Amino acid sequence: MTALGGRVAALLRRLEDDAGRRDPAVMERAYAAAAGRPAPPGPREAAELCADAALPVHPGVGRFLYQLVRTVRPALVVEFGTSFGISTIYLAAALRDNGTGRVVGSELHPGKAARAAAHLAEAGLADLVEIRVGDAAEELADLPEPVGVLLLDGWKELYLPVLRVLEPALRPGACVVSDNLPMLPPEFLEHVRGDGYVSQPLELGEGIEFSVRAG
User: What CA–CA distance (Å, rounded) separates 33 from 37?
Assistant: First the structure.
């Protein structure tokens, strides 16, 4: 049985079901609170407004991440936007089935990072994951080895700045999965669809951009 069976599968179902019940109401309150502000919230304000929202990847995207990591067999997976750790479970489960590799995740909100750590411990995957709390552009600037798979699933306006920080660490052929395609800034898509990557949209969940680092 793979790591997506048994207690990991049961935990994923529970977390995804909980998010489906809770997130719509949480996000409705967050949008209402943001509408009353004189300017759109920045990343830290948005993180606080959405502190109780799991905002998970679609299960289809999660399975794709698992398949991708099993296939690529990366030594290091990096995640921008860990939230409650649902996507992290898919990534770490694949690494455990590979028998090698680690995940370095980043999460701006300390409470979400604590929840993610608890969920990873419940899944039996905590030993494969390091969650760095704070600004991803700072926290992910120092990595132990080249990155084989990168998941971007945080504040969309930060995708390009975070990617630029990580590009020197991306090994040739590294895979970049950028979630929530309809929300991605045009300048980010222009970057990954230009020189330096081979990139295309995939119809998974709300849509993802799948990019492979050239070289």
Answer: 7
d(CA 43, CA 157): 9
- 8 Å CB contact between 157 and 185: yes
pTM (two decimals)? 0.94
For residue 67, the SS3 value is helix
Tokens 């929300």 locate to: 183
The encoded tokens of residue 74 equal 């990366």
Please check whether residue 50 lies inside any domain of the structure: no
Specify if 137 maps to a domain.
Answer: yes
Residue-wise pLDDT tens digits, 92-144: 999 999 999 999 999 999 999 999 999 999 999 999 999 999 999 999 999 99
Bridge partners for 210 per DSSP: 177, 200
Range of the domain at 136: 59-213
CA distance 102 to 124: 14
CATH number at residue 113: 3.40.50.150
Within a domain: residue 166? yes
Domain count, the chain: 1
